[in-house]
């Protein structure tokens, strides 16, 4: 085994002297390496050492070395680090130990010198060094850097420093009095933080050992900003399109000015410059911190079509710098304005006969919008007799004219709604209503609700009583509507209508001026005229038919059997009369109407109810059985004739019957006698002469009446002839008359004439002994018969 140590043996042979054995080895030798043959160097025999106790005492806390008794060698048991063993970095480093041999005791002092090898690289206490350098620093300015350390010594320690490549920095190395090297960082070129804010450098420390070892440190140079850059906008001019009526709060633009500086030098405040009008600032707002421009007012294209804003961005440096830009906002028109209708020279009242083509109003339309949003179509809301004509010289003006004839009575006023609608999307519209009142013109004649009035008037009416109200209607207004009523004059039987009737000229109430009697006058026919107060006046008339309604005001008159007033009729009949023989016939007449004159007969008193019967409809009294010797010769019959009115009126007749034994010819044997019996008697001659005279007088009266009517002015509507005249003519007709001497013959004649369709009535003659019998065609009615029967010859 080779020896790595140099051996120095010093022996002190005098008493008390210490002997020191020195060796020198390199640090970091491998374990088991032999430092020296200590036994040989100390002159000790190996054989004697085996039986003796040997101890190696090292003055450290680690056992670096040990002694081999067999070989006498001192060897390494743990690596020796000179920098650890001698941290103070002396020029010489020794490891001291004692080699002790007992029995006898011997002590040997040994020093082991540790030589340095380049086993440690230089290193910096801080591997990251940060420097803040203002970008305004001038070239040549120096900045101290920390030194590197190397535990090695001698040539193995730090030899030099090196700096990574940089355009702005270099290093200078200075050596102190103790040989320590110091490094300064030197600025060689001006810095620009905006160009490069951080410079990263590497400082390398290199030792002189073999092989060369080095250590590095990161040098971070942070360039401190100075306010040398103004804020910059992305653009100098921003052009933005915005629709009008954009909602408040809408973002217009987010300005982003940049400042290459940092810190407060890069903090920017935005504001409007003096070149921005106050009106613009009323519409837009600017956030001074974020640069957001938003809408705060109403954007109206019709008010301003574009806005111009000048914005300033200023930093917060000690000496602030600023930048500017311009924002152009073009407003896009929206259909936000309703069309407007203006009406001029309007005629709110026109006469209803205004000519077609008359201008009612001048209409103008306008819209503040532009393009299609400002194009307007105008129309009338619904069909009316008016149209709009566009003006030839002014395209936005129209003439509202009458297109059809107007009639106030159909439509008294028109609410003409004009609708103007633009062509925008969505379209907007406006409307305007023009009210046109029509003035009345007297173009309508009064009209009665009916063309013919039938008025029923109860007879025996009070004079002055209201019959009816004949009110006409005139659709015109005011004086054209005020009506006056007249009765068109007409004479009936030489009596003027104004003597019979009266009408209120203001309200058309019709009154009766006299009391009417159905038995004398049954109806009237005349005309009433209604005339307005217009100019010229218009009128119309209506036909009025007055019908007199009958009242039951006439009691029946018993005409058969005839008797003087208050007297009793006496009749004789043979006792041999058969059952069912006609004893007498009671005939009563009633001058009332057919309904009221319908007569029924009944016994009021009868001597023997089992002997006589009375037909309630024809008044015939007949025997119910033959007379017996027990029956009385005198019989008293009281017959009442009652009409059909309400209340019913009646008349009575008392008939005294005397039964005789004389053979008297029965009534039934006389019924078939010829009607020409005793036809040429004197009485019949008088009757013929009377009839001829009456007929002649009637003919003369009719002719005179016709002549007078032809000479009289005729009304607009000729009234039909009165029924009274017709009735009087009918009543004046007497067809035939026959005179008989007693009741039996009269009844025989009555039956014969009845079979021929005639009604026979007998009336008293002045002498009272005979009867006038008048036969009248059936169907003329009892009321007519009464008139003719009242005529005597």
From TrEMBL:
UniProt feature coiled coil, ranges: none
Transmembrane stretches, start-end: 685-708
Domain Cadherin positions: 17-124, 125-233, 234-341, 342-448, 449-558, 573-676
One family name in Pfam for this protein: Cadherin_2
Signal peptide residues on this chain, from the entry's feature table: 1-19
Cross-referenced Gene3D superfamilies: Cadherins (2.60.40.60)
Molecular function terms from GO: calcium ion binding
Major location category of this protein: membrane
Domain of life: Eukaryota
Keyword Protein biosynthesis: no
Keyword Transmembrane assigned: yes
GO biological process terms held by the UniProt record: anatomical structure morphogenesis; homophilic cell adhesion via plasma membrane adhesion molecules
Membrane topology type: Single-pass type I membrane protein
GO cellular component: plasma membrane
PROSITE patterns: CADHERIN_1, CADHERIN_2
Keywords: Calcium, Cell adhesion, Cell membrane, Glycoprotein, Membrane, Repeat, Signal, Transmembrane, Transmembrane helix
Protein's cellular compartments: Cell membrane
Function: Potential calcium-dependent cell-adhesion protein. May be involved in the establishment and maintenance of specific neuronal connections in the brain.
Name of the protein: Protocadherin alpha-C2-like
């Amino acid at each position: 085994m080779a020896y790595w140590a140099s051996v120095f043996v010093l022996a002190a042979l005098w008493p008390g002297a210490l002997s020191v054995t020195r060796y020198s080895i390199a640090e970091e030798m491998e374990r088991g390496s032999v430092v020296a043959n200590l036994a040989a160097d100390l002159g000790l025999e190996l054989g004697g050492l085996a039986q003796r106790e040997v101890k190696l005492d090292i003055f450290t806390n680690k056992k670096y070395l040990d002694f081999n008794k067999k070989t006498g060698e001192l060897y390494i048991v743990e690596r020796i680090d000179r920098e650890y063993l001698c941290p103070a970095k002396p020029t010489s480093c020794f490891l001291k130990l004692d080699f002790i041999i007992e029995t006898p005791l011997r002590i040997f002092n040994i020093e082991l010198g540790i030589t340095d090898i380049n086993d440690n690289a230089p290193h910096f206490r801080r591997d990251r060094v940060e420097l803040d350098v203002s970008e305004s620093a001038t070239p040549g300015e120096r900045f101290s850097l920390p030194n590197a350390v190397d535990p090695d010594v001698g040539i193995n320690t730090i030899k030099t420093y090196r700096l990574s490549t940089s355009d702005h920095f270099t290093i200078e190395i200075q050596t102190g009095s103790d040989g320590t090297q110091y490094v300064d960082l030197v600025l060689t070129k001006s810095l620009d933080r905006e160009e490069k804010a951080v410079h990263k450098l590497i400082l390398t420390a290199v030792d002189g050992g073999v092989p060369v070892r080095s250590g590095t440190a990161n040098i971070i140079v942070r360039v401190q900003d100075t306010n040398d850059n103004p804020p910059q906008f992305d653009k100098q001019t921003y052009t933005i399109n915005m629709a009008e009526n954009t909602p408040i709060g809408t973002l217009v633009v987010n300005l982003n000015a940049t400042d290459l500086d940092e810190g407060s030098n890069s903090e920017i405040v935005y504001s409007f410059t003096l070149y921005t009008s106050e009106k613009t600032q009323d519409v837009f707002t600017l956030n001074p911190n974020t640069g957001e421009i938003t809408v705060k007012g109403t954007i109206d294209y019709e008010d301003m079509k574009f806005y111009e804003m000048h914005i300033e961005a200023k930093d917060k440096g000690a000496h602030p710098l600023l930048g500017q830009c311009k924002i152009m906002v073009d407003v896009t028109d929206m259909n936000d304005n309703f069309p407007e209708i203006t009406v001029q020279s309007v005629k709110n009242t026109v006469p209803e006969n205004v000519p077609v083509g008359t201008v009612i109003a001048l209409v103008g339309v306008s819209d503040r919008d532009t393009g299609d949003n400002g194009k307007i179509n105008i129309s009338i809301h619904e069909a009316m007799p008016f149209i709009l004509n566009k003006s030839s010289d002014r395209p936005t003006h129209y003439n509202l004219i009458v297109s059809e004839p107007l009639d106030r009575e159909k439509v008294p006023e028109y609410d003409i709604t004009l609708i103007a609608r633009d062509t925008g999307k969505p379209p907007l519209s406006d409307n305007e209503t023009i009210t046109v009142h029509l003035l009345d013109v007297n173009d309508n004649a009064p009209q009665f609700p009916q063309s013919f009035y039938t008025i029923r008037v109860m007879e025996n009416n009070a004079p002055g009583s209201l019959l009816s109200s004949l009110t006409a209607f005139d659709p015109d207004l005011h004086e054209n509507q005020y009506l006056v009523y007249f009765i068109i004059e007409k004479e009936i039987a030489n009596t003027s209508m104004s003597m019979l009737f009266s009408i209120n000229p203001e309200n058309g109430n019709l009154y009766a001026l006299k009391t009417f009697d159905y038995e004398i006058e049954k109806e009237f026919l005349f005309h009433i005229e209604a005339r307005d107060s217009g100019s010229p006046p218009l009128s119309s008339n209506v036909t009025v038919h007055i019908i007199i309604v009958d009242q039951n005001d006439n009691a029946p008159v018993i005409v058969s059997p005839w008797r003087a007033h208050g007297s009793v009729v006496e009749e004789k009949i043979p006792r041999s009369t058969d059952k069912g023989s006609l004893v007498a016939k009671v005939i009563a007449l009633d001058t009332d109407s057919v309904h009221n004159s319908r007569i029924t007969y009944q016994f009021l008193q009868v001597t023997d109810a089992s002997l006589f019967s009375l037909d309630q409809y024809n008044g015939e009294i007949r025997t119910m059985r033959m007379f017996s010797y027990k029956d009385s010769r005198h019989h008293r019959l009281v017959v009442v004739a009652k009409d059909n009115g309400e209340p019913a009126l009646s008349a009575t007749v008392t008939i005294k019957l005397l039964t005789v034994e004389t053979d008297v010819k029965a009534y039934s044997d006389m019924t078939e006698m010829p009607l020409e019996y005793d036809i040429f008697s004197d009485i019949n001659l008088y009757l013929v002469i009377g009839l001829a005279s009456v007929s002649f007088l009637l003919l003369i009266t009719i002719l005179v009446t016709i002549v007078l009517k032809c000479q009289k002015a005729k009304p607009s509507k000729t009234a039909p002839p009165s029924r009274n005249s017709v009735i009087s003519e009918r009543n004046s007709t007497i067809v035939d008359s026959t005179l008989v001497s007693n009741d039996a013959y009269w009844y025989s004649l009555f039956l014969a004439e009845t079979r021929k369709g005639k009604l026979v009535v007998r009336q008293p003659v002045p002498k009272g002994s005979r009867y006038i019998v008048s036969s009248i065609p059936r169907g003329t009615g009892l009321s007519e018969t009464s008139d003719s029967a009242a005529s005597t010859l």
